[in-house]
Amino acid sequence: MAYLLVLKGVSLTVPEGAIVALLGANGAGKTTTLKAISNLLQAERGEVTKGSIVYRGERIDRLNPSLLVRRGVIQVLDEPSMGLAPQLVAEIFDIVQRLHQDEGVSFLLAEQNTTAALRVADYGYILENGRVVLDGGADTLRQNEDVKEFYLGIGMTGRRSYRDVKHYRRRKRWLA
């Protein structure tokens, strides 16, 4: 019997009133992470260690659902920009930012569009092959050379650079 370990020790913190981005390429484990923490993940074989969301010291699944909706405790968005025109993407992230600023809504965004997500996020986690390989404040991530290279599409010289073998090797060390 073969088991597939999809997520490997992923642990996230979404502070109250924060926007946290869960970033990574297609297949990195973003949606699976959201399903796990929302208790929506079912395994056909093997074991799923269920996650939970804790709000003010209490597990969110133990709180009154109507209270959660009224307060807008945390909104979980999975790829809100997927397949949309840039103008619509900007609009969606403007709405996220307004809800955050005006209503104090916390967000956990799973997103491939690193530029858009880090523009509004306070903090970010980068997933590769089901594990967190890098995390930090949004400003710090935007300035990180690896993030610029692999997710923002610019290298140290300001050019598109995925084709350069030495940079591929640098990314490969994340996966080791």
From TrEMBL:
Q: Which SMART domains match?
A: AAA
InterPro entries xrefs: AAA+_ATPase, ABC_transporter-like_ATP-bd, BCAA_Transport_ATP-bd_LivF, P-loop_NTPase
Write the record's keywords in alphabetical order, separated by commas. Answer: Amino-acid transport, ATP-binding, Nucleotide-binding, Transport
> Its Gene Ontology biological processes?
L-amino acid transport
What would be one Pfam family of this protein? Answer: ABC_tran
Tree of life domain? Bacteria
GO terms, molecular function: ATP binding; ATP hydrolysis activity; branched-chain amino acid transmembrane transporter activity
Q: Where is the ABC transporter domain?
A: 1-154
Q: Which family does it belong to?
A: Belongs to the ABC transporter superfamily.
What is the protein name given in its UniProt record?
ATP-binding cassette domain-containing protein
Task: Name its species.
Answer: Tectimicrobiota bacterium
UniProt lineage:
Bacteria, Pseudomonadati, Nitrospinota/Tectimicrobiota group, Candidatus Tectimicrobiota
